[in-house]
Amino acid sequence: MADDTSLGGLLAGWIAFMADGVRGLAPAAGAPGWLIDALASAPDWAIVIPAPLVLFVGLLWGLSVVGRGRRAAAGFAADVQAGAATLSGGRVAMPPAPATDRHVEAIDRDRQEQDREAEARVKATVASEVAAAKREILDALREREADHPSAAPASPEAQAQFAESVAEDPDLADAKARIVARDFDGATAAVREVAEREAARRKQSSVREAQLWRDLGLLEAGRSVANAIDAYEKARALEGDDVWTLIYLSRLYRAKGDLPRAGEAAGAALDAATNQRDRSVANNELGDVAVARNDSEGALNAYREGLEIARALHAADRSNAVLQRDLIVSHVKLGEVSGDPKWTEAALEIALGMQAKGILAPVDAWMVPELQKLVAAARG
C-alpha cells in the first residue's frame, strides 16, 4: 500500500505503530494470556487512545506513594527526636534529619549507642560501689575481731565470701549499713530476718540460702558459739559437701569443747575436699582437733600431711601468695607441737621473703614480728 502523507493517513499510521508496540511489549512484560489475547483482537484505536490516560494515572499514583513514604519517614524521625528528649530530660537534643531511610537508620544507631554507653556507666558505678562496700565490711570485721576476738576467728576466705555476699545482695542492704556503722547486733538481726524469710519461702536456691546461714553464723560467732553452730549446721544441711562450712563447724565445735563433733566435721571436710589445697587445710584442721585431744602423734601426722600437700602446690606455683601463707601456717603448727625451732625459723624465712617481695597481705603483717618473737624465745 502506498504511503499516505495526509494528516489522516499519518495519524492512522502512528496509531497502528503504537498499537503494535503495545501488543509486542505485553508478552515481554509478563502480561497474562487473557490480556495478550484481548490486545490481539482489539482495534488499534482502542489500545492507543487510553494509553496516555493510563500513564498519567500511574504517574500520579507513584508520586502519591513517594510522598506518603517521605511523610512517614519524617514522622518517625520526629518521634525518635521527641522520645530521646523526653527520656533524657531535654539533655539529648537531636537535630532534625532529612526523612530518608538512611538518616532514620543513623538516628536509630545513635540512640542504641547512647543506650549502651549509659548502661556501661551504670555498671561501672555499681561495680565501684560494691568494691567500696566490700572494703568497708572487711575493715569493720577486722576492727570487731581486734576489739572482741571470736572464739573461732573467721578465715580470710570466709571473710571475703561474707563481704561479697553482703555487699552484692540487695536483701542485705540493711545488714550492710549496720556493719559499716559497727552495729553488729543490728546486722546480726537483719541477716537472721533475711535467712529465716528465705527458709520460709524456699523460693531461692539452696545455695543462696546456705550462704545466708553462713553469713549469719559468721556474725553470731562474735556473740554466741552455740548460735553460730546452729547457723552453720543449717548451711551444712543445705550444702553438706561445702568444705569451708565443715572446716568452720569443726573450729566452732572445738571452741565449744565438743571434740567428737569437731573431729567428725574435720574428717567430713577432708572427705569432701575436691582439690589439694582444701585437703591441706582439712588436714591442718584434723591436727588442731588432735592437739585439743592431747594427741601429739596424731597432730604431727596430720600437720605433716598438710605440709606435704602445701609444698607440692607451692612448687607448682611459686608466685602464689596464698600458697606461701599456707606454708607458714603448716610450719608454725609443726613447730608448736614438736617443739623444734627449725619449723618456726622456716616459717619466718617464708614470711620475710613475702614481705620483701611485697606480697604479704597487710592483714598478715603481724606474722613477721610474732614469728620473730617465737624464734627469739626458742633460741633463748
What is the CA-based Rg, rounded? 42 Å
Mean pLDDT: 83
Low-confidence stretches: 53-61
Largest sheet features: none
Structural class: mainly alpha
Discrete helix count: 17
Sequence of secondary-structure elements: HHHHHHHHHHHHHHHHH
Shape: elongated
Instruction: Compute the separation of the termini in Å.
Output: 142 Å
What's the helical proportion of residues? Answer: over 70%
How many strands in all? 0
Strand content: under 5%
Walk me through this protein's architecture.
With 380 residues, the chain is an all-alpha fold. The protein has a domain of 75 residues. Helix content is 80%, strand content 0%. Helix 5 packs across helix 6. The termini are far apart.
Compact summary:
The chain is mostly helical and 380 residues long. The protein has helices at residues 7-28, 33-41, 44-48, 50-87, 101-147, 156-168, 173-180, 184-201, 206-220, 225-238, 243-256, 259-272, 276-292, 296-316, 321-338, 341-357, 367-379.
